[in-house]
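Fold this sequence, please.
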Amino acid sequence: MSETVSLIAETTGERIDALLSRMLPELSRSGAQRLLEDGAVTVEGRPVKKNYRVAAGERVETVLPEPEDPVPVPQKLPLDVVYEDADLIVVNKPRGMVVHPAAGHPDGTLVNALLWHCGDSLSGIGGERRPGIVHRIDRDTSGLLVAAKNDFSHLSLCGQLAAHSMFRQYDAVVYGAMREESGTVDAPVGRHPTDRKRMAVVPKGGRNAVTHWEVVERYRGYTHIRCRLETGRTHQIRVHMEHIGHPLAGDLVYGKKRPDRGLSGQCLHARTLELSHPRTGERLRFSTELPDYFLAFLSALPRE
């Protein structure tokens, strides 16, 4: 799927191909030149050549093709299997592991590990680049994730996600003292209007997103909370907590720009997962202990 991106030139005299490669980090200068040659770039609505020099304030629009993720290969990697049968597998993903290969992460992902562990026994609905993947969690988020081992299970699990009948609960540490003991954030999430690498609560064009939260423990300057997802948008908990003024500890994208001691990413763990078995209908519930990094961070926080 392609994406249309709008930019505003900040200075006068910069070449259009240089501007594109500077403002779009995923685009090389040669890639920008190819887009210009293909007529996929306009300035104030008209196509331009690659040597065109912009004027400050001009609107530049380009259509970016969806980058193709690398085709994954089996890799023998540590895999914490919580549950497995002929239809599905539930794993406890460590912090720092990407779910599937993508630009900048061609291997070492959860999919690579699943291919080694499950062989050909993964659903094909996600295509050869995302076999078995029903839902994702961020690289620096740890915790439970279910993968489908056949197409029948994949369709059932996706249906449960769409119907909001799959229960997903996360533990997180946020900055500041939450005033209430619990609450709900009901705010649409979409692409950030000026930073393509971030998501945001947006007034128009966003997708419905609902997060329920409750306080677990209060610390000086921080709060340990538990979040239940009613929907599952990209970066949903991180965006919603930033939106209400309590970004996640360690989150360098949506929170402070310096890391917290002991954290290399957001303090967020997918702790509980509950779903109906695709074949039997039995309700299955899985829960994990908080990982060491999470517990170590909590133990270093002063209590109120």
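The mean pLDDT is 91. The chain has six helices and 15 strands.
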